[in-house]
Design brief:
The chain is an alpha+beta fold and 301 residues long. Helices cover 26% and strands 34% of the residues.
Length: 301
């Protein structure tokens, strides 16, 4: 699988405040309290911090049942691109530094809560130099002693106020499920994005999307993964052309990061997985409920 690097984080930094809800600011000297009054904020804090840390399996637990019925955990985790190993340890550390403050809470019809908050979180891009440009393979290959030193350095920088931060305001919605509150993303009102692939007539390569479709909301990052196999006895080079249908909506789908815009080589019989991260713009025309993304593969020997 291709490595995610700093380019991925640049895209997230641009969109994070737009797409992620935030939560209540707890004093650094005290632990979160658990009561009927603080429970909504506890839930969203957990969702936000796990999302920031790219621990999407945990974040998924805090999404509403209605949303989860529309998107399985494995699909959500894959299209978001979870971290693992030391990169996950780093983002979990950075998530501890997030500061959140409620601005307004409004109870709406149906018992939902709409909460406006102010969020302040570490700018992960500003730390690229000491984090090997966020190259997951290189970070995981570091000796344990160097990994511990990096985590210690982040703690020291945070205490000294040396980590750059990003601030913004956002509104999010919570719904009550039994005795618990869950984050309501309203995927039912979202856009269904389906995936397809077109390969050369000679069938020198095989390409299939890992997931056939997903449902997303405007301004939400999502990742498409394709498994690609070289079916020939020689090394080939392949790249893709993105085809968006309806064609007049192609300008509303931004490519945040793509592993196949430039040619990549595949050895004889080699199979690999490549990902592209997109974001549907918030200015998508009203009434649009479906998009199709087709990867047209081009091969050179």
């Amino acid at each position: 699988m291709n490595s995610r690097t700093t380019s991925w984080f640049l895209g997230v930094a641009a969109a994070f405040i737009l797409i992620l809800p935030a939560a209540f600011l707890y004093s650094k000297s005290s632990s979160p309290q658990h009561s009927p009054q603080t429970e909504p904020f506890n839930t969203v804090e957990a969702f936000l911090k796990n999302s920031y840390a790219r621990d999407f399996k945990k974040a998924y637990r805090y999404i509403s049942l209605g949303d989860r019925q529309l998107k399985a955990e494995r699909v959500y985790v894959r299209e978001k691109g979870s971290f693992s190993g030391f990169p996950l340890a780093v983002t979990r550390k950075l998530a501890q530094f997030i500061e959140l403050r409620p601005l307004e809470t409004v109870r709406e019809q149906g018992g939902q809560l709409r909460v406006k908050v102010k969020a302040k979180y570490p700018d992960a891009n500003s730390l690229s130099a000491i984090l090997l440009e966020w190259d997951e393979e290189r970070l995981n290959a570091l000796p344990l002693s160097m990994q511990r030193d990096i985590l210690s350095t982040l703690d020291q920088m945070n205490r000294a106020g040396e980590i750059k931060t990003i601030e913004g305001e956002e509104e999010f919605t919570l719904v009550k499920e039994g005795t618990s509150w869950r984050v309501y993303l309203d995927w039912a009102a979202g856009i269904r994005v389906s995936y397809d692939a077109v390969v050369p007539p000679a069938q020198s390569i095989e390409a299939v999307p890992v997931n056939k479709a997903t449902t997303i909301r405007p301004s939400e990052l999502f990742t498409i993964a394709y498994r690609v196999k070289n079916r020939t006895a020689q090394t080939i080079s392949t790249r893709i052309t993105h085809r968006i249908e309806p064609d007049d909506l192609s300008g509303h789908l931004d490519i945040v990061d793509c592993a196949l815009l430039l040619p990549v080589e595949l050895r004889p019989g080699e199979e690999s997985e490549f990902s592209t991260t997109y974001m549907v713009r918030g200015d998508l025309p009203e009434g649009i409920k479906e998009l199709n993304v087709t990867y047209e593969f081009h091969v050179a020997h």
